[in-house]
Specification:
- Residues 220-305 form the GIY-YIG domain.
- The chain has 503 residues and is an alpha+beta fold.
- The protein contains 18 helices and 18 strands.
- A hairpin with a 2-residue loop joins strand 14 (426-432) and strand 15.
- Helix 7 (170-188) crosses helix 8.
Length: 503
């Protein structure tokens, strides 16, 4: 099976809504009329709800006694007078009935923050915690029809040709919302409508250009993937232990995350590449990020300029830590003990944390300048190393930095690291002195290594050895990654590799 696949569609598809994810949810279209705009002290005086549960629709409405006079402004707006609500049930008397409609349903309302706030406050007063998923039809209208000059409910009704004899009454506004939803679904198509609703609510829905069959074809294996726009532009480059799981995360739980929503709306196709395991994912992913520039993705932290911490002898014989941007061309030949970090910022913050954790001198660790006052209580900068104080202190520093100290290459030659995924796909990673020189598949017929992703380029073992003699910059992210897998995978010296070992 070739290692590279593309999941895409030539044209935008319109899928049947009955098979869509929205068909599995209950939607409660709600409108409230209140005595004012503040949920903490104003009261609900009318409520209406239409529950859409699959093919079933139920509705309920009632005037409620707010326990206070209806302000004249509200009377003029809604037509509800104090005499109309006096003696009607209070919210506490209908809350159980209302809860039966709203429980486990997605709340749908125009300017939903208002209605959700009043319901949350009133249910809290009777001991219920109301925290629903929310679909705001005002936001949906702005998303689907940005060219419309106004998106208030009355303006929408006028735009879509829905007329009602009354306005600002609960059930009339619920009917208006239902009319808008029906109009948008028919006008934009089920695929676009469901996708935008899913994004606003935070449901797992697919972009209109990607079918469920294409997503089902993505394996739950380690790999890297690319999200591309309609013109083929690279939007996002990602890595995953399970490709399908990670790709689907881009289309769910995006409610409230504007960056995630913007990305999801631009995705037109998904390209994916299954790899042998998590080491392979890390090696291929970091290399790809160095050459590709996704439009909607920040540059990975691992690609910053690495930093090393050096142990420097002072004039008085003391030893202190000094930071240096970049890594020496050949660390092993320097003979120095170095601590390696992702970048200078990472080095300073981590060393400062270690200073506190191990009660070490910040000045000795290079966290503060010599001219700055140090109040750590552990300073011995005036004592030379020959009396033991400096040596003991620097030994403590090295102990604290154990996880960051450079580990010399544990072999005298290049190695091939074997990795295999759950589907049986395997790779051999050619590594020397913590440098990655390529990943390969063993071809038993040719008895040669084939460059991963380029089966037309065979490589003999002798050629592999020569490749490792080429100068190559040490990449911090590869060094850390390889160290992490040092005891988890099979590392075979190149001179010991045989056709039998490849099997």
């Amino acid at each position: 099976m070739p290692p590279y696949f593309v999941a895409h569609s030539a044209a935008r598809r319109v899928r049947d809504a009955g098979c869509g994810v929205l068909a599995n949810y209950r939607f409660a279209l709600v409108d409230l009329e209140t005595t004012g705009g503040q949920a903490d002290h104003d009261q609900i005086m009318e409520a209406a709800v239409r529950l859409i549960d699959g093919e079933r629709e139920l509705e309920w409405q009632s005037l409620l006694d707010p326990g206070c006079a209806v302000p004249s402004f509200i009377q003029g707006l809604t037509g509800i007078h104090s005499s109309m609500v006096r003696g009607k049930p209070s919210f506490s008397q209908v809350e159980e009935t209302l809860w039966s409609y709203l429980d486990e349903a997605i709340l749908v309302a125009h300017n939903a923050r208002f209605d959700a706030g009043f319901l949350r406050a009133n249910f809290a007063r009777v001991g219920r915690d109301y925290q629903p998923r929310v679909l705001c039809t005002l936001k949906l209208a702005r998303t689907l029809y940005p060219e419309w000059p106004r998106h208030g409910l009355e303006a929408i009704c006028e735009r879509i040709g829905f007329y009602s004899e009354v306005h600002h009454r609960a059930m009339a506004d619920v009917d208006a919302m239902k009319a808008f939803l029906d109009y948008a679904r028919a006008d934009k198509g089920e695929a676009v409508f469901n996708f935008e609703v899913g994004l606003l609510v935070g449901l797992p829905v697919l972009p209109p250009s990607i079918s469920q069959e294409e997503v089902d074809a993505i394996p739950c294996l380690p790999g890297i993937y690319r999200l591309r726009g309609e013109a083929g532009e690279l939007l996002y480059l990602g890595s995953a232990s399970s490709l399908q799981t990670q790709v689907l995360r881009h289309f769910e739980n995006s409610a409230g995350d504007s960056k995630a929503v913007k990305l999801a709306r631009r995705i037109y196709r998904v390209e994916w590449q299954a790899l042998a395991g998590n080491l392979s994912v890390g090696l291929h992913y970091s290399s790809a990020l160095r050459f590709e520039k996704p439009l909607m993705q920040r540059r990975a932290k691992a690609l910053g300029r690495a930093c090393c911490a050096r142990f420097i002898s002072a004039a008085n014989g003391d030893v202190q830590l000094r930071l240096r941007s970049g890594l020496p061309a050949n660390i092993a030949e320097t003979g120095e003990v170095l601590a390696l970090f992702r970048d200078r910022k990472h080095a300073k913050s981590r060393i400062a944390e270690l200073a506190v954790e191990h009660q070490l001198c910040p000045r000795r660790l290079g966290v503060i300048a010599d001219c700055e006052e140090c109040e750590c209580g552990a300073c011995v900068s005036d004592i030379g190393a020959n009396d033991g104080g400096g040596m003991q202190a620097i030994a403590a520093v090295k102990a604290a930095l154990t996880g960051y100290l450079y580990e010399p290459w544990p072999f005298t030659e290049p190695v091939l690291i074997y990795e295999q995924n759950a589907a049986g796909n395997s790779e051999w990673h050619l590594v020397d002195d913590w440098r990655h020189y390529g990943s390969f598949i063993w071809d038993a017929k040719l008895t040669q290594l084939l460059e991963f992703g380029d089966s037309a380029t065979p490589l003999s073992l002798a050629a592999a050895s020569l490749r490792c003699k080429q100068p190559k910059e040490l990449q911090y992210e590869h060094y850390r990654l390889l160290r992490a897998f040092r005891n988890e995978l099979w590392w075979l010296p190149l001179s010991q590799f045989t056709e039998q070992s490849a099997k």
